[in-house]
What we know:
Blueprint: E1 14-18, H1 21-28, E2 35-39, E3 45-46, H2 55-58, E4 67-68, E5 74-75, E6 78-79, H3 84-95, E7 99-102, H4 108-121, E8 127-129, H5 137-145, H6 152-179, H7 190-206, E9 211-220, E10 226-234, E11 237-239, E12 256-257, H8 261-270, E13 276-288, H9 296-307, H10 311-323, H11 339-353, H12 389-392, H13 398-413, E14 419-431, E15 437-449, E16 483-495, H14 504-514, H15 522-531, E17 535-538, E18 541-544, H16 546-558, H17 565-579, H18 585-594, H19 602-607, H20 614-617, E19 619-623, E20 626-631, E21 634-639, E22 652-655, H21 667-676, E23 681-686, E24 693-699, E25 702-707, H22 714-718, E26 743-745, H23 757-764, E27 768-772, E28 778-784, E29 787-792, E30 795-798, H24 810-817, E31 833-837, E32 844-850, E33 853-857, E34 862-864, H25 876-889
Parallel strand pairs: 1-2, 1-7, 7-8, 11-12
Antiparallel strand pairs: 3-6, 4-5, 9-10, 9-16, 10-11, 10-15, 13-14, 13-16, 14-15, 17-18, 19-20, 20-21, 21-22, 23-24, 24-25, 25-26, 27-28, 28-29, 29-30, 31-32, 32-33, 33-34
InterPro entries: Topo_IA, Topo_IA_2, Topo_IA_AS, Topo_IA_cen, Topo_IA_cen_sub1, Topo_IA_cen_sub2, Topo_IA_cen_sub3, Topo_IA_core_domain
Domain Toprim: 13-133
Family: Belongs to the type IA topoisomerase family.
Amino acid sequence: xxxxxxxxxxxxxxxxxxxxxxxxxxxxxxxxxxxxxxxxxxxxxxxxxxxxxxxxxxxxxxxxxxxxxxxxxxxxxxxxxxxxxxxxxxxxxxxxxxxxxxxxxxxxxxxxxxxxxxxxxxxxxxxxxxxxxxxxxxxxxxxxxxxxxxxxxxxxxxxxxxxxxxxxxxxxxxxxxxxxxxxxxxxxxxxxxxxxxxxxxxxxxxxxxxxxxxxxxxxxxxxxxxxxxxxxxxxxxxxxxxxxxxxxxxxxxxxxxxxxxxxxxxxxxxxxxxxxxxxxxxxxxxxxxxxxxxxxxxxxxxxxxxxxxxxxxxxxxxxxxxxxxxxxxxxxxxxxxxxxxxxxxxxxxxxxxxxxxxxxxxxxxxxxxxxxxxxxxxxxxxxxxxxxxxxxxxxxxxxxxxxxxxxxxxxxxxxxxxxxxxxxxxxxxxxxxxxxxxxxxxxxxxxxxxxxxxxxxxxxxxxxxxxxxxxxxxxxxxxxxxxxxxxxxxxxxxxxxxxxxxxxxxxxxxxxxxxxxxxxxxxxxxxxxxxxxxxxxxxxxxxxxxxxxxxxxxxxxxxxxxxxxxxxxxxxxxxxxxxxxxxxxxxxxxxxxxxxxxxxxxxxxxxxxxxxxxxxxxxxxxxxxxxxxxxxxxxxxxxxxxxxxxxxxxxxxxxxxxxxxxxxxxxxxxxxxxxxxxxxxxxxxxxxxxxxxxxxxxxxxxxxxxxxxxxxxxxxxxxxxxxxxxxxxxxxxxxxxxxxxxxxxxxxxxxxxxxxxxxxxxxxxxxxxxxxxxxxxxxxxxxxxxxxxxxxxxxxxxxxxxxxxxxxxxxxxxxxxxxxxxxxxxxxxxxxxxxxxxxxxxxxxxxxxxxxxxxxxxxxxxxxxxxxxxxxxxxxxxxxxxxxxxxxxxxxxxxxxxxxxxxx
Length: 904
């Protein structure tokens, strides 16, 4: 509902339209009299699906994309079905207004929303564009003094991006449907992000580990102070470490000494009685600068590292903090701070940590974005005077407080003094009993002044071989030629490590470094590739699916430019140029779609694709003679048949376990799976009652048995009774109704190669009728997804083992039914998480594991946990919010079936 305020002095009403109700509620509290604030709830118009176009337009130049290719790529916008009521409300509110203020966000999307509102509402009163980087009284008052017109260049850039994504997706996605699987999609940024994850997995699959050895010892001074040092060279040649090996396990250089286990043990033994001395000592001053204030991407990275938030959760929480006036706008690629923010950060650092923690000169950070029109401030606490975490602790809880605290710490630390200290490096050595010169190294850093580190220290992503090198830690006071005694001198073996998988944080960082995507797109991109099944999470790591391999291979081979990193980054730069008014929308789209003399357009590439070998696209050689295929029902291994195999011979196949990551499917593992795979199908015999063949098979959902229904013979078809029309003409013979074959899932104790015909016939007769109770209710026993159970009407009860299905008696069943029912007919599983009582329903809120994944429930309302969110990331606040959103939507409406019109 709009938030109203009447200007008693003038009687005029000023209508302010924002994007969300939460933002509107906060703004209304800061505006003066006469303002009415309402929300558009995001975009009100968009491109429709081409199938939803009016019939007369489907055959026009609009028909393929809902974009008119013959009229300079003019988009055909429609008001979304779910926004028609909202548009009517906005028009009604505008009727009584004397001025209209469009106060949507200040980025491209917000500018486009403001333009769409202008096009749909067609106001006849003065219109003002109002933007503010934060929702505070000071910022809104400043914005009212700096109103402007809608920036058409920014609108053009957003419209170009929307049309570009429509052209890209609608031309390439159908190729994926035909050659890989239905329901897949291609996207300008999502396809490149998927390629990055797949390429990293390919590197891990090709990786071959190498082993190397060194020595680690504990050394003591004459005053008994000890420290650890690691062997770094022998006879003047550097010892090989993990960084000296290629991903194929080969040494990059011959100028290093590669110690194996035997050599390391021999050297350790030869040094046991050696006399060690300090050979050199170097001390350097240590200085470390604070990190810049948060941009969207660095916020997502740090929230992932420190708070374990997904990108989507980070942006959802940040959106709420912004709308409620706690932080500045959360979509920005600028690390700059306003003068007020710098002063506030310096003042708080001085008050909380001391004047010495604030440098004399203010720190100025420059954003990387060339697009000055979108260069917001960095993400920081809102206001000209920040609120500390202690000051917001009573109003913020859970994830919101954690993220606010992270933003506050980073902002204040960015204006604090450098951390100071010294780094000492020592080399020590000795000659072994067999005359080999061994040199060890150690280093240590001593922080003498913590500076910004008193408030905040930036996290980092895991890197390869990060535990290598000289030992860290504080070193005792040493000087050259000091004698040292060695203890615990031991050989230490290591294995080189493969490239680490991407996490959400490192993927966002890489996309930003490559110039692909923009701050507002990273969270949506990662959510999309996870929702499409291209990528799953294993802990924090992103693991590609086999279907992602097929998609990326097809795109690499047939749409090379469109998954090329430089090409995609150039498109982003071109969109920025359009936003700055340096390039034209129509000319750019023409070049992208139709091409020019230098480049071939997307339209030509798709039309000239030729034949794509779907089998090759969906095949990956895993081992000699073993190929992985991506099939309709998932990945499987296949051993291709020899050329002279008899016709009709089926190749050997084996299913690939769902929890096996691609890099874990080694050649050895593939051979193991092929050798342990049971037969795909085995004929068990004939049913003595029907004469039909009974077969055991391995299926997508496990092994099962099925009866084979023979096709009707020509004689049976010919002997069907003939039916006639009213005019006496014979009707065409009907096809006999298909008989549904009986089936039965195998018990866990059975397999395709061991199940007998007798067992199969028993399985296909399930459910088994035990009898009736005293009231005449039939009791049956059967097998289900959660194990064997009894069923009486709607009352189900679990029983012990699958074998009991064939042995349990009616008396035993009645005894089970005489006992109080356990929750759900079986022992209720413990909740995955508990969040106390819901303030609306006053029922306990828990997370349960359901048929379609984990879901949140208060016993009345259920809502599935978003796929991109791990259970560990879910907070009480987020759980209550999801339940509230589900309640607002109400129960899902069942589709109304239209009755067929009566025939005349």
